[in-house]
């Protein structure tokens, strides 16, 4: 082993606890000293009631099914410890959702209990701010998050409402499948005041490990913590994957260092002499990139003088040639825009990288035996769904399935959406109905909106939906997206297609009455047109919050027969994912 493969303790980060914790990094011999393993069984009074998640005021008891575990301690005891992140609570809900999707995956790979924030910030109130502030804690976002982004905006846009995360996410369903607790539960489990939860989503490095687990008999034994530094996650020229399969390790003679090296990885790929084919592939990489599309790699092989007996139309043949020449195929999802804003999981693709650029998340951090593992900073922007690529097709499929089947909106939201979808259909004589998302608000400020004037914007929407109408009229054989459990939704054929003057749903954050009038006169129906006073009363106060309405709009658009949305919007991405799970035909969706 050359010296560059050896750990370099002098250059390890000097963060308070890390050097001690790095030493705990084993070759297989794990310390099993998790606090919660040394539980005091006499503390049986510590029940789910005490540790009930936030939002219980809103949730009626019938909505709350206990996870199969009786207490938070029991959830955590199924795993090797806790995993959490620095969550960017300043982002809107759909971005937070994607971050949580990825965090569930990261925690699962490490067999750890995920800690998520117990609240998120909603950006707007449908009424005077003071009305929502009577129900949800109103904060100044700049102060709560510690950013200055909103400081110069009007007062209304500086304020936000702190709402329990369970209003936005079906936490009981998630917990039936994955060990997840909220930060306030984590704090209570460690004898800390839940109101001391970080307001920005950042994991306070010292404070959260200052007190022992309440079940810990040795009261001096505070949790150990390991920080996965952000710069270790996917430094330029490397590719973070879920795990490196044994076969791939064998192919590249992957070795495990006894310690994390300076770059935060335990693995190394010994240098290999490049073959001619490998050099050709390297030359085929797009400028400044370390990854190429499947077709690019295939074309490079086609001109590499392989004999006619090599059938490059067979994927396994191509993959085999790549593998024997030092390259590997990674699995991920295609995006509409090239920027991975929408994080849709409906179009699986393969990409090709040099083996030496691959770093496995599980391989690097599973064996860390600290009680708490934190992934520092942001891994959201410009990342693929899951914030990593997958080495095996079945793992990618499992992730896609998790996103659509385990991380949904609360039942209250989906139930209301179903009722409203039926109203849309009725309004249009029982025909299929179409919908669009018109993101305006902050997208106008950022210059991202499709058409700044409401007149032009609604014209554009109508134009796209007219095309959508012909798509629906022509549907005869149904297809589905490649998502687990997606069965063709037969309603697409059973109900008649829309007529030219049918009403269509527009989900929008536009609140200017004049703009709304223009859009409405174009034939649009808004959520507020569909909601009855009974709906509002039975749903309760969260429906006064614009972000919760957006969640209902999103769930409603999942039922639209044709959907047109903005290509940069994460809200539209969720709709596409959920429509895929519903069995909508891929031709019935348009983003531009
Ligand atoms: C996760 O860790 C727990 C506690 O060490 C162990 O009992 C369980 O079998 C592990 N699960 C998996 C899937 O490895
Ligand atoms: C909201 O209500 C407060 C208190 O009643 C009032 O002072 C304020 O002017 C109202 N704001 C708007 C925009 O109507």
What does this structure look like?
With 592 residues, the chain is of the alpha/beta class. It folds into 4 domains: 40 residues, no CATH class; 162 residues, no CATH class; 143 residues, no CATH class; 181 residues, 3-Layer(aba) Sandwich (Rossmann fold). The protein has 24 helices and 20 strands. A 5-stranded parallel β-sheet has the order 6-2-1-15-7. Helix 16 crosses helix 23 and helix 18 packs parallel to helix 20. It is globular, with a radius of gyration of 26 Å. The N and C termini lie far apart (52 Å). The N terminus is likely disordered. Bound molecules: 2-acetamido-2-deoxy-beta-D-glucopyranose (2 copies). One 2-acetamido-2-deoxy-beta-D-glucopyranose binds next to loops.
């Amino acid at each position: 082993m050359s010296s560059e493969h050896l750990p370099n303790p002098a250059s390890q980060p000097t963060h308070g606890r890390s050097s001690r914790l790095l030493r705990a990094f084993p070759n297989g011999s794990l310390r099993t000293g998790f606090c919660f393993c040394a539980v005091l069984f006499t503390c049986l009074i510590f029940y789910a009631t005490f540790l009930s998640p936030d939002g219980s005021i809103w949730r009626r008891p019938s909505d709350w099914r206990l996870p199969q575990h009786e207490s938070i301690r029991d959830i955590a005891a199924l795993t090797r410890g806790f995993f959490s992140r620095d969550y960017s609570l300043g982002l809107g809900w759909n971005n937070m959702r994607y971050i949580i999707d990825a965090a569930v995956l990261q925690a699962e790979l490490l067999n750890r209990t995920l800690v998520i924030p117990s609240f998120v910030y909603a950006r707007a109130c449908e009424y005077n701010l003071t009305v929502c502030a009577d129900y949800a804690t109103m904060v100044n976002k700049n102060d709560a998050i510690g950013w200055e982004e909103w400081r110069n905006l009007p007062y209304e846009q500086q304020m936000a409402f702190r709402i329990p995360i369970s209003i936005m996410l079906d936490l009981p369903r998630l917990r039936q499948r994955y060990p997840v607790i909220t930060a306030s539960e984590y704090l209570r489990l460690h004898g800390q005041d839940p109101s001391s939860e970080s307001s920005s989503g950042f994991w306070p490095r010292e404070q959260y490990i200052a007190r022992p687990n309440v079940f810990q008999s040795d009261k001096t034994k505070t949790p150990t913590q390991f920080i996965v530094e952000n710069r270790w996650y996917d430094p330029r020229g490397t590719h973070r994957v879920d795990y490196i399969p044994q076969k791939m390790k064998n192919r590249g003679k992957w070795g495990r260092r006894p310690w994390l090296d300076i770059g935060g990885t335990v693995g190394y790929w010994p240098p290999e002499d490049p073959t001619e084919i490998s050099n050709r592939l390297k030359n085929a990489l797009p400028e400044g990139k370390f990854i190429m599309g499947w077709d690019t790699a295939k074309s490079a092989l086609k001109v590499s003088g392989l004999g006619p007996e090599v059938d490059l139309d067979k994927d396994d043949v191509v993959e085999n040639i790549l593998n024997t020449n030092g390259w590997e195929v990674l699995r991920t999802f295609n995006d509409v825009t090239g920027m991975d804003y929408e994080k849709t999981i409906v179009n699986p693709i393969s990409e090709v990288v040099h083996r030496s650029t691959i770093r496995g998340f599980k391989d690097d951090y599973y064996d860390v035996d600290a009680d708490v593992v934190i992934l520092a900073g942001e891994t959201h922007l410009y990342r693929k769904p899951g914030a990593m690529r997958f080495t095996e097709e079945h793992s990618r499929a499992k992730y896609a399935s998790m996103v659509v089947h385990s991380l949904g909106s609360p039942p209250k939201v989906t139930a209301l959406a179903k009722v409203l979808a039926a109203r849309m259909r009725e309004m249009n004589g029982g025909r299929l109905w179409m919908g669009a998302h018109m993101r305006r608000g902050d997208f106008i400020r950022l210059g991202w909106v499709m058409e700044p004037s409401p007149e032009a914007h609604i014209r554009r929407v109508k134009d796209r939906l007219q095309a959508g109408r012909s798509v629906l009229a022509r549907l005869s054989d149904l297809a589905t997206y490649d998502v687990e459990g997606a069965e063709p939704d037969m309603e697409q054929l059973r109900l008649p297609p829309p007529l030219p003057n049918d009403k269509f749903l527009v989900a929008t954050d536009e609140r200017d009455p004049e703009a709304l009038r223009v859009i409405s006169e174009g034939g649009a129906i808004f959520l507020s047109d569909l909601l009855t006073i009974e709906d509002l009363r039975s749903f309760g106060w969260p429906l006064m919050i614009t972000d919760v309405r957006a969640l209902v709009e999103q769930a409603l658009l999942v039922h639209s027969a044709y959907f047109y949305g903005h290509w940069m919007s994460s809200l539209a991405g969720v709709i596409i994912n959920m429509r895929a799970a519903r069995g909508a035909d891929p031709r019935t969706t348009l983003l531009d």
